[in-house]
Q: What sequence folds into this?
């Protein structure tokens, strides 16, 4: 595995500089292998190729892709074993099962192979190398763990960072704390562990930054913050820099296909991992979005011959970016906006990604809010769920409602509710907003 990984990393170091069209020509050759395999050994795709009138063994073009129907989550769930290969090539190694967190309420199960693991590890290492991390440092993670595992005060510890880096480089230690821990316990743990790098969910990091800012608490050992699993805003990047004086580096991935895009080491844009996945961003008419346009994300996993995912709609929206000044040919997305249910349905029927008020605007009204979540209950009603240190005054509540309405641009009824705790979803993530209307 170490030899394979080093060999693949060498290749990735070359391919990142290829022109975008040259990269697609390489993807097309891999897609021809994938389609031919799926057309021969996967009943679901045998039917799908026949219905589209396509020869799965023919060369693949962009027009070929456009003729293939979109694979939706319900299709994947309903296909059962028909979407799995009946004959995985021996060179792909053993099969293992992947299960999504079900944060949308609709978890899926699929198979993957040792080859898909290899590309996942290679992308992990590519990110470490791009960001210039010192692998000899200490890595701290505050993420989901099983109930009662990695809890305060000690958490859990490993002698190396993980199977990607640990298989080819000597690394420092890694420590883990369950994200179910209180923010106060998390900060105490970080002060004791003194990590060089910290990875967690954006919502958790915002709460940590607020706590440290309010308490005048520094984390002087930190060199970099790493984020996963949720949308990263410019506000969070600025907050992390202001409180801890370190950069924030994000990556975009999914459980179904691994790494989709990695933040450029020279900018805040994300380079699509073309060697691992074909990623499309389509508008409402199914056409490819141009730079500056926002659309839904489709992925084709290039190396998963166990459960092929061809034009799979993962439920996210992203904004396409222009070619990056760094010189890499890997296409760019400038930001990931969220999932279908993160869109606000306006009274006039339009669906938008909302801004409820920047964090500093809210703190100018009150500093009592410790955690929050917005839920659109109907086309007229939005509820803000809050965990607070003290109940807001009538004046603070009214100012908060006015701020929300002003930023949304519509006169929604704003309901404020108080709670002892707000729970994350099954994956440990914590969505700031979701709509019960958007679906």
A:
């Amino acid at each position: 595995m170490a030899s394979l990984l080093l060999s693949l990393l060498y290749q990735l170091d070359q391919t990142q500089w290829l022109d975008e069209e040259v990269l697609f020509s390489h993807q097309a050759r891999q897609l021809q292998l994938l389609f031919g395999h799926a057309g021969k050994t996967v009943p679901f795709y045998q039917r799908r190729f026949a219905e589209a009138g396509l020869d799965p063994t023919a060369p693949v073009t962009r027009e070929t892709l456009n003729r293939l129907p979109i694979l939706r989550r319900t299709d994947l769930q309903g296909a059962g074993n028909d979407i799995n290969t009946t004959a995985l090539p021996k060179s792909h190694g053993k099969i293992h099962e992947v299960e999504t967190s079900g944060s949308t309420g609709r978890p899926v199960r699929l198979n993957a192979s040792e080859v898909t693991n290899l590309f996942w590890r290679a992308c992990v290492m590519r990110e470490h190398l791009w960001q210039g991390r010192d692998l000899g440092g200490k890595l701290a993670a505050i993420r989901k763990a099983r109930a009662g595992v990695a809890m305060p005060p000690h958490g859990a510890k490993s002698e190396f960072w993980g199977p990607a880096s640990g298989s080819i480089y000597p690394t420092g230690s890694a420590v883990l704390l369950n994200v179910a821990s209180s923010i106060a316990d998390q900060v105490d743990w970080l002060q004791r562990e003194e990590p060089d790098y910290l990875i967690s969910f954006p919502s958790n990091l915002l709460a940590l930054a607020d706590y440290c800012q309010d308490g005048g608490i520094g984390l002087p050992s930190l060199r970099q913050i790493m984020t996963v699993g949720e949308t990263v805003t410019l506000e969070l990047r600025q907050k992390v820099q202001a409180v801890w004086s370190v950069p924030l580096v994000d990556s975009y991935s999914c459980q179904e296909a691994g790494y989709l895009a990695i933040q450029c080491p020279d900018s805040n844009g994300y380079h699509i991992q073309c060697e691992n996945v074909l990623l499309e961003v389509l508008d409402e008419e199914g056409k490819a979005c141009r730079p500056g346009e926002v659309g839904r994300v489709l992925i084709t996993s290039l190396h998963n011959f166990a459960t092929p995912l061809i034009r799979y709609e993962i439920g996210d929206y992203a904004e396409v970016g222009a070619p990056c000044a760094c010189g890499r040919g890997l296409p760019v997305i400038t930001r990931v906006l969220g999932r279908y249910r993160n869109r606000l349905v306006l009274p006039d029927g339009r669906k938008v990604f909302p801004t409820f008020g920047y964090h500093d605007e809210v703190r100018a009204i009150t500093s009592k809010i410790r955690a929050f979540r917005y839920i659109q209950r109907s086309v007229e009603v939005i509820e803000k769920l809050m965990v607070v240190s003290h109940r807001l005054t009538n004046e603070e509540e009214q100012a908060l409602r006015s701020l929300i309405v002003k930023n949304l641009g519509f006169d929604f009824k704003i309901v404020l509710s108080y709670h002892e705790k707000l729970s994350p979803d099954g994956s440990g993530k914590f969505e700031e907003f979701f709509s019960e209307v958007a679906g």
Notes: The chain has a mean pLDDT of 92. The radius of gyration is 23 Å. The chain has twelve helices and 20 strands.
